[in-house]
Fold this protein.
Amino acid sequence: MAPPPVLLMLAVVMASALVQSAFLDGIIFAVTVSSRVRGGQQETLCAHIDGPTMPVKMTITLEMGPGKTTILEQTVDKDFYRCLNFQVPTVHHRTVASINVTITGEGDSMSKNTKILIERPAFIHIIQTDKPIYKPGQKVQFRIVSMDSNFIPVARLYKVVELQDPNANRIAQWLDRNLVSGILDISHPMIPEAVQGSYVITATTDQGEQIFHSFDIKEYVLPKYEVKVELPNVISILDKEATLKICGKYTYGKPVVGSVKAVFCKIATQMSWFIREEEIDICKTYELLTDKAGCATQTVNLAVFQLNWSTNYVSFELNAELEEYGTGVILTGTGRTSFSAIVRTVTFEDVPEAYMPGILFEGKVKVIGPDNKAVTNEAVYVSAGNSQAVKLTTGTNGKASFSFDTTLWKDSVNLQARSRETEVNEPYVPGVRKPVYRTAYHNVIEFYSRSSSFLKLMQVNGKLACDKDTTVRAQYIIDGRELKDDQEILQIFYLVMSRGGIVQHGSLPVAVQPKLQMPITSQHRRVSVPLRQVTNLAPFAQVVVYTVMPKGELVADSMDFPISLCLNNKVSLRFSSLQELPAEKTTLTLQAHPGSMCSVRAIDQSVLLLQKEQELTVDSV
C-alpha cells in the first residue's frame, strides 16, 4: 500500500535522509542527513549502529567530484548513536554530492550511499527608495541591504549598481561599492527634463547575485484628501441588504465635510447572445452628506437587483464623488465587490492520505463563507464511513479538529464533512440561481507496516508560540513479537528541521514488552518531543520521529508545525506625541536590541495616496 504524502515527504527529508538501514551479520545501521544543504554552512548528520556482537568500523564520507571529506570514522562494539556537525563545501552553483557509509567487520563489509543537493548560500538582498514616486528634478535616494538567512548583515562588494530610464538607457552607474555594516546608501539627482515613466535600479554583487527595484518619475500634485469606499467583501445570494460607506479624510487625519454622489450598479457579464431583461446592468444613485466623521452611509435594498436570476457572472460596483464644502474640490473613489451563490464551503485540512490501524486518525475541517473568509461558531458535521460521525463547532479561524478511533477500520474509509446535517436536493429551475453548500470528501487507505508497528505525530491547534519552548506529542504502537527476547527499551529518535537543515535532535527511550502476543494498543502510548528556541525555527518546525525495529524496518512519521512569526530583535518606534502643528518640534524615539542595525526613513503620507509601496514586513522577509 502506498505511503501517505507525509511519509513521501519524509522519504525526501530522510534522504536521501536515510542511507538505507541494512544488515551486516545481524547489525543494523542507519544514517540521517538533510537531502538539501547549503554550501559553506554547518549541517548535522546522525549515525546509528544497532546490535553489534563484535567490533565494527563505521566510516562516513562526503564526496563531491574528485574531492572526499571524512565526516565520521568510529569503531564500536555496542549500540551506537551520535549526531555531529560537518562543514558543507562552498559551491557557486547547485551541486549534487554523495554521502557514503561503509561498515567493516571481521572479513566482511557493507557500503551504502545516497545523493544530496548542495545549494548556494542563501542571502537576502533588498533595494529600497526613500519614496515610490518622484518629480523630474528631484533627488532619488536609495539603500541596498544585504543579510544572511538569520537577518545578520553581511559584507558584500557590489561590482555594479546602475540606473536605467524608461527607454533602457543607463543614466547612472556606481562601481565597486562596499556595504558598510550591511547597508549601502546611494543618491542621484534627476534633471528637470527627466523622461517620465518607470526607472529601474539594478545591483550586481561580486558573487554574481543580482537584484532589481523600480520607481516612477512623473509630474503630480499631492492630493489634499483621499476618498475611501467601503463595500461588503462579497454579496451573497441570501443577503437582503448591503451597506455602502464613503469616507473622506485629509492627509493629516481630519475628516472631510461635504456632499457625496454615489452610484451603485450590478454588472452582469453576458455568457451568450441571448439577453434577458433581468440580465441588464441595474444602477441606483444616492445623494448623501458626510457626518462629523467624514463618512456617508447608505443601506441598499438588494431585492431590486434580482440576485436569484440568471446564471451569468455578476459583480457590483460603487462610484462615489465627494465634493468638499467651501472649495468645490471634487475627488472620487471606486469600489468593487463580487457576488456569490456559494453560501458555505467545507474543506479538509491537515488530513493524511492513510491511516495507521489502532492510532487515532486526526484532521481538521475549515468552513468559509461567500467571501472566502473563515466562519466562526459554525456547526460542521464530519463522518467516517457509515458508523462514525461527530458534530463540531468552528473556532475563531473557522477550523475545527476531529479524531476517529481506527481500531475497527479496514481497507479504505470515506470521510465526509458538511455544513448542514442533512443534504437538501432542490429541483433545478432554468435561469434561477440556488444557494450552494459545498461538501468535502476525502478517502483514506490503510498504511502498511511489515511489523504492525506505527509511530504518528499528533496535530496541534493553531500555531506554536514563538516566545517559549514547547513540546509536540507522538503516538506509537509497537508489536512486541517484533522485539528481541530480552528487549525492554526501544529508542525513538527525533530530528527537528527548519529552513532545510537539522537544528535539533535527540532520542527518547520508551518501555516495551518483548514477545507480547498482540500490539501494545490499549494503553495509547505517547511520547513528547521537545522544541527549544522556537523563534529560530519559524516559520515551520519540521519534526521527524523514527525508530529502527530489530529486523531492520524503519517506523517513522513527520509533520510540519507552523510557528507564529516573530524576530529575535525587538524594535519600537514612536513620536513624543501623535499630533503636532506645522513647524513645531517633535521627538522620535527608537529602541532596539543591543547590537541591532537600524535604518529609518520618513515619507509624506500624501505620496502614498498617489502610489502605494510594498513595505517590508515579517511575512515578506
The CA atoms of residues 60 and 253 lie 66 Å apart. Residues 5-119 form a domain with the Immunoglobulin-like fold (CATH 2.60.40.1930). The helical segments are 5-13, 605-610.
